[in-house]
Write a structure and sequence with these properties.
11 strands
Length: about 120
């Protein structure tokens, strides 16, 4: 079992920044992908950003150029730096990791991000 602990959400004004963190209970080297998803009220969960074990990254078009995903291997933590935040970025953000050996997905509990206009 993999446990994820997210932090860093909160309330920010439009144009501001937040950094989300997701710490995993096992080595980050066991994962072949780590990502962030979000779910806005009344909308389906969508992919925001993903980073692979080869350090390749991919972003949703709506956040490309404003958000950056990264990881700290020594701390077994993945981050999402969010800049130039917009009210439409308001959502619950979820960390997801995919364990390499069996392709099992694990999810964090979610952290609320609210951007005021």
């Amino acid at each position: 079992q993999v446990h994820l602990v997210e932090s860093g959400g909160g309330l920010v004004q439009a144009g501001g920044s937040l950094r989300l963190s997701c710490a995993t209970s096992i080595s980050i080297f066991s994962m072949n992908a780590m990502g962030w998803y979000r779910a806005a009220p009344g909308k389906q969960r969508e992919l925001v950003a993903v980073i692979t074990d080869g350090a390749s990254t991919n972003y949703a078009d709506s956040v490309r150029g404003r958000f950056a995903i990264s990881r700290n291997n020594a701390k077994n933590t993945v981050y999402l730096q969010m800049n130039s935040l917009k009210p439409e970025d308001t959502a619950v953000y979820y960390c997801m990791v995919r364990r390499g050996w069996d392709q099992s997905d694990y999810w964090g509990q979610g952290t609320q991000v609210t951007v005021s206009s």
